[in-house]
Amino acid sequence: MTTNSSVLSVRGLRTEFLASDKTWFPVVNGVDLEVAPGETLAVVGESGCGKSMLAHSVLRLLPKKISRLRDGQVLLGDQDLTALSDVKMRQVRGNDISMVFQEPMTSLNPLMTVGDQIAESILEHEDISIADAKRRSVELMDLVGISEPAVRAHHYPFQLSGGLRQRIVIAIALACRPKVLIADEPTTALDVTIQAQVLRLIDDLKTEIGMGVILITHDLGVVAEWAQRVMIMYAGRKVEEADAETFFQGPAHPYSRALLGSVPRPDAQIDSGEFAPLVEIPGTVPPLDKLGPGCAFADRCVYRTADCTQAVPDFVKVAPGRGVACINAGDLS
Ligand SMILES: Nc1ncnc2c1ncn2[C@@H]1O[C@H](COP(=O)(O)OP(=O)(O)OP(=O)(O)O)[C@@H](O)[C@H]1O
């Protein structure tokens, strides 16, 4: 069972990929998470840290043959999604859990008008007439910021810009009023103004229908504005979790600190009125199939000590809703 306050509960999730030498290596490694109704949990980390694979594992959309869900539970209410048949899992997807991917074309049918695609999604989940579903699809298009929705409802995906297509995908994802929405960089293709509109839309609906949101993003500005809780991933593992306010006041993991140092912040304004330059984190995320025995961040960490390369640090809960996986976290200045 999920806890009373959670709509989705992930326990000890481990997903593996097949390396070129035919051995399996973890890309999601023992991850736990909880999402409450009406809450946005931001999942943050550099490219290749396993954020998308975490989302794909929850939805059981992993590429077959080269990847496998090795361990763990994904609890939606009292249902463990890892134990469902493929048929049952298809009913859960797009009904109880929806996902918005980075690339909208992967989610749209090129041979159907966008209005019909939204209406079809509504009809799958609600007992209303086709005419009402079409009317609702136009309303949803309006809601996600598409001008002239009644006209554009008759367009095919290829006739719309990338940004408009992404808004259609979001309309489809929200049409069934899911319990959980997983949004993987949902606004990457959109300009900043539209990005804020779309995030506000997700936020409004989240509050209105008590949906839990997992928001995967590289953008800490987006996290600060829209997320209540933050989970930082590095090399397939959860390295820090905190409520957003606590996190921004004082991130506990050296990686989180480095990430926060790498974004321009209004409070970092320097005297000339310019923003302080970005601080890059030296090095890159190591290949996940070649990780050593210690902390995967050790090579890039300014707080590294000899012990860091001995063993992978445990994720330790330091306060309710707060945890960190760093043996030196308590001593960072
Ligand atoms: N198709 C694939 N084949 C082999 N390995 C893969 C594949 N997709 C992902 N991986 C492995 O999974 C790891 C995590 O990838 P994932 O896409 O989850 O990262 P991410 O944090 O979502 O990055 P991004 O922000 O760029 O989307 C990669 O570093 C890689 O080792």
Automatic annotation (TrEMBL):
Membrane topology per record: Peripheral membrane protein
Family per similarity comment: Belongs to the ABC transporter superfamily.
Domain of life of the organism encoding this protein: Bacteria
Annotated GO MF terms: ATP binding; ATP hydrolysis activity
Example GO biological process: transmembrane transport
GO cellular component, one term: plasma membrane
Taxon lineage: Bacteria, Pseudomonadati, Pseudomonadota, Alphaproteobacteria, Rhodobacterales
UniProt domain ABC transporter: residue ranges: 13-260
UniProtKB keywords: ATP-binding, Cell membrane, Membrane, Nucleotide-binding, Transport
Cellular compartments annotated: Cell inner membrane
SUPFAM superfamilies per the UniProt record, alphabetical: P-loop containing nucleoside triphosphate hydrolases
Predominant place of localization: membrane
Protein name: ABC transporter ATP-binding protein
